[in-house]
Specification:
The complex is a heterodimer. Chain A is an alpha/beta fold. Chain A is built from 9 helices and 16 strands. In chain A, the strands form 3 sheets. Chain A has an 8-stranded mixed β-sheet with strand order 5-6-4-11-12-13-10-14. Chain A has a 6-stranded mixed β-sheet with strand order 8-2-1-9-16-15, covered by helices on one side. In chain A, strands 3-7 form a two-stranded antiparallel ribbon. In chain B, the strands form 4 sheets. In chain B, strands 5-4-3-12-11 form a 5-stranded parallel β-sheet. A 3-stranded parallel β-sheet of chain B has the order 6-9-10. Chain B has a two-stranded antiparallel sheet with strand order 1-2. The chains are: A alpha/beta, B alpha/beta. Chains A and B meet through helix 5 and strand 10 of A and helix 1 and helix 2 of B.
Amino acid sequence: MTAITILGAGVMGLCIATELAARGTTLPRIIDPAGKPGAQACSWRAGGMLAPYCEAESAEPVVLRLGLDAADWWQANGAEVVRRGTLVLAPSRDRTELDRFARLTQAHRPVNGDEIAALEPELAGRFPRGLHFATEAHLNPRAALLALRDRLEAQGVAIETEGTPAGLIVDARGLAARDQLPDLRGVRGEMLVIRCPEVTLTRTIRLLHPRIPLYLVPRGDGIYMIGATMLETGGKYRVTARSAVEMLSAAYALHPGFAEAEILELGSDARPAFPDNLPRLRRRGGTLYANGLYRHGYLLAPAVARMAADYLLEGRKPEFMDEDHP
Amino acid sequence: MPVFYGTEVASPLMLGTAQYPSPAIMAEAFRAARAGIATVSLRREGGEGQDFHRLIKELGIPVLPNTAGCHSVREAVTTAQMARELFETPWIKLEVIRDDDTLCPDVIALVEAARLLSEDGFQVFPYCTEDLSVCGRLLDAGCQVLMPWGAPIGSGRGLNNPYGLRSLRAHFPDVPLVVDAGIGLPSHAAQAMELGYDAVLLNTAVAKAGDPVAMARAMALAIEAGQLAHGANPIEARDMAAPSTPLFGMAVLA
């Protein structure tokens, strides 16, 4: 069996390493100059929603199909997966957004004000209608990456900070692989992390809005991750005042208690995407590129990792091999 | 086909580039629509999005950059200047927004920005209301095309004021007129063309449809139908029926 060296210890690299190690045939090496999962990877700033049905509102059907197993994969690999579903809400004047979202998605049930209050008591009386996607889940991305790292280390795969790749190279460097993948682009996202013990929400909430859609993912201990933006700019890593104001006012519209929140972190990063916003495995010489997870890092990385392992260990041609998606 | 500032474009459908599920679907929608012009926002898609701009240039049709998201004359002028450098075009769709909920144009600032930009050599496509005096002022400011709204941006409500749009057409028979914004359905786009408008500009109705490519094609067909209908000199509506088949001598069916 040829040796395998994985470049990059973000969500893609660690999932592939985990999948390879699980098959037992060969233990890969991982090289990442940072030495551990952290802010150098855009997956560090992800929401951690495992919400294949909601994503189908704007994503291709294959994202739903491949994302269905993600929650099980993460749970089996040491991540703490919270399976409380997703609650999709809209301010009453934007209720047509809710109708549109319902038309474009499945596996939801409409909920009225009382049912919303039963799911999330703090939202009692605030929203007359919503959609509950009961089977969806979320996780804490940073804890999940560190859990993968710990399990790999326990199996004897440590993240090397430098070294010469040997054998077959799996390039999972995300946007850093742009030097080799000219059709890869960065899609910027901005996020913030707040602490607000006064407001207790237990599941992912999506607040629909024609201009400022917002999602909020509970991290536990009164900490929430808030995300919103999708900007077609690879450029500078910064959060604009406009985005911050929009995200915070949308959070305030969700629950006025968020006005008292402490802002722990404002972050921005660029997610790697191919023109169809779908991931790719691309073989060039001795390198297999695994990239283009776009906004679906935690949702699709397990499926792409499985395909990569099938290809590397068994020679099985993956669904997302480049040639099939010109 | 419509002529803007001396340039004839290949189709009266002007299509926006925002909010598609992916750039690949956007490109497919543009092919299905055979759109004549691609509009692109500089502020929201950012001046740094070279990759996205490259994808737009690859559509291979004229690009009309816009100043969406600008709230003042100065912002709009600066954004227009950035757009001219990035896309190497004197064309600019000028948007100056007064209110974020309705995205209602600030027509006072619009006229001022149009004047400054026209003096600076820009060819300005102003996103305006259907108000006759505002439109007159925009022409005075140097605009040679007018783009009144059908309804607020993204609302999909169609033509809120067909009377006003018809009146504008009658007042400025020789100025290229574009219904910009508010289109939700192909029938809305057809109606704009039936009124004698030169083009229709839309984005959300296609990008946020469940199947953007199919909707792009539907819009193109409707616009073609409306354009043909206008050229065909349609009949007037009337209160009394006018039988289209002679009744005399009709067969009696048992």
